Automatic annotation (TrEMBL):
<protein>
    <submittedName>
        <fullName>Adenosine deaminase-like growth</fullName>
    </submittedName>
</protein>
Length: 538
């Protein structure tokens, strides 16, 4: 074989190997600006691979592109801070991301923002889950919980750290904060304790809780700590608004957040727990409209197409209880057809009930939806696991048999060639959450993530952030960054394909989808021109 023949056969083999990829068509018809922009990004990435990620500094060990997102070291306080300082990340922040299709609303807006909001509401009370006072010995495992209470509480103790504090006694938040034991840092120590309880810290992810099972034990407590704040209507309103503004600022133009409707009533401004789900939707709807109007007035209507809600409850309930939620979801869809995107059940798949427990109510849901002629698909989590054949892994069979329109995570689908074929052939997109998967210990770092297998098998992928407020990965830029630095095949064009696919596989009705995609294409071409004009060596 001549060298020329060898290299031609070699390039044919590579093309065949990549023949199923969805970015092929885009790659085959690149504009000049796209070619230049792709090259600029590859050059910046290559330069930073040495200048940022391959430091010879003695105190830094194991630094590499796509490394653990929360990792710290003596001179690099976190991987995230190193990412913030890169040119590649700045490019990512400017990229139009399309839709955010997988995020749990109560874990989306910045926790510091949430905490600042909380401190403005004197009605809020706090308690600790410890049997007695919070102390140096138990503070790392003690959880704060919050509730708006209008009647002054006489707990007998001034603060959570008083010797007389006993379990579950509510104390006004500002008082508890001011009187927090100076030995534990006083008010600043209180703030730190609360904020640490609502996020995952590197020492937990990579040390004390370094398995899927253990990190989930910590993860669920972050929701337990924040839920009393999130479910207070005035905070919920400001929070939802902040989620939109932060997302739009990061280039996300449409969102389908999941809202957890497990709790049936939210607390109203006066502390009564009487706000039904339909009011949560009305608030959400009003805020979407207000922001659209504001952006329109600024000539920025291309930046935001609105948002819909994926109705969720948690996989701890009985099949009978699930029926209440499916009926609630259908009633809400009938009242707010433009607001409800679909239905899902959430929670740690390795621990919670498998989908097989819910087949009857979910089949009944599908039948009722069809009978009523509603556009209300299942959008199920499945395969968020390391198991091979465990209940979380086999949830993938049920999600597909139940007709899920997309799969939340689908991390373990790469073990199932037939299921990957089904996704490709039927256009079932995966909502892939890279940083979530790494922090929740499904992958040690990004280069081990199965995303390239999914892409090479031609499955549509929408990159998603899952719980960015818990992971400190606000917006989508960090997830896009971790993906692009962890593959030599993936460049700007592959990211563009995933961004476009996030709109393509959203639940927007056809005409709105076309409009959203056309607007995304306009922004994409402006972005590409800008990147193409950068000097990679500057
Ligand atoms: O990655 C995930 N997989 C499954 N469930 C999740 C994930 N992230 C958050 N939640 C669940 O969503 C609810 C809050 O809205 C919580 O129940 C949390 O456990």
């Amino acid at each position: 074989m001549s060298l020329q023949d060898y290299y031609s056969t070699r390039s044919d083999l590579i093309s065949q190997d990549r023949a199923r990829r969805r970015d092929n068509i885009r790659l085959a018809s690149l504009t000049e600006a796209e070619k230049r922009a792709d090259k600029v990004v590859r050059d910046i990435r290559a330069a930073e691979e040495t200048s940022v990620w391959n430091s010879d500094h003695e105190s830094i060990k194991n630094i590499f592109p796509g490394m653990e997102f929360l990792t710290g070291s003596p001179i690099l306080s976190t991987s995230k801070e190193a990412i913030d300082a890169t040119r590649l990340f700045k490019v990512m922040t400017k990229m139009p991301k399309g839709a955010l299709l997988h995020a749990h609303l109560d874990a989306t807006a910045d926790k510091k923002f949430l905490w600042e909001l909380a401190l403005r509401h004197p009605i809020l009370h706090v308690r600790a889950t410890t049997p007695g006072p919070v102390s140096a010995a138990n503070i790392s495992s003690a959880l704060p919980e919050f509730m708006p209470i209008s009647e002054p509480q006489l707990s007998g103790a001034l603060s959570l750290t008083d010797a007389g504090y006993s379990a579950d006694k509510w104390i006004p938040l500002s008082q508890a904060r001011e009187a927090f034991d100076p030995a534990l840092g006083g008010p600043a120590g209180f703030d730190k304790w609360v904020l640490d309880s609502m996020v995952i810290n590197p020492a937990e992810a990579y040390g004390t809780h370094n398995t899927v099972t253990k990190i989930w034990q910590k993860f669920v407590t972050t929701f337990r700590a924040s839920t009393g704040l999130f479910l207070y209507r005035p905070i919920y309103n400001d929070y939802v608004r902040q989620f939109f503004l932060e997302s739009i600022a990061d280039g996300i133009s449409y969102m389908e957040p999941r809202i957890n409707f497990y709790t049936k009533f939210m607390f109203d401004a006066s502390g009564e727990q009487n706000v039904p789900h339909r009011e949560w939707l009305r608030d959400f709807d009003r805020i979407v409209k207000e922001i659209k109007e504001e952006l329109k007035n600024e000539g920025r209507e291309d930046e935001f197409f609105g948002a819909k809600i994926i109705y969720t409850t948690v996989r701890i309930i009985t099949p009978e209880e699930l029926q209440w939620y499916t009926e609630d979801c259908i009633a809400l869809k009938q009242e707010f057809p433009h607001l409800i995107a679909g239905f899902d059940v959430v929670g740690d798949e390795n621990v919670c009930r498998p989908l097989t427990d819910y087949i009857a109510p979910l089949l009944a849901f599908n039948a009722r939806v069809a009978e009523l002629g509603l556009d209300l698909p299942l959008l199920l989590h499945a395969g968020e696991t390391l198991t091979d054949g465990g209940k979380a892994d086999t949830n993938l069979y049920d999600a597909l048999l139940l007709g899920t329109k997309r799969i939340g995570h689908g991390f373990s689908i790469v073990k199932h060639p037939k299921l990957m074929d089904m996704c490709r052939e039927q256009g079932i997109a995966l909502e892939v959450c890279p940083i979530s998967n790494e922090i929740l210990r499904l992958t040690s770092s990004m280069p081990m993530h199965p995303l390239p297998i999914m892409l090479n098998n031609g499955i549509p992928v929408a990159l998603s952030s899952d719980d960015p407020a818990v992971f400190g990965s606000m917006g989508l830029s960090y997830d896009f960054f971790q993906v692009i630095v962890s593959s030599e095949v993936t460049g700007l064009i592959t990211l563009g394909q995933m961004a476009r696919d996030s709109l393509e596989f959203s639940t927007l009705p056809t005409s709105e989808k076309e409009e959203a995609i056309a607007s995304w294409e306009r922004r994409w071409h402006r972005f590409v021109e800008e990147v193409a004009s950068l000097d990679p060596s500057a």
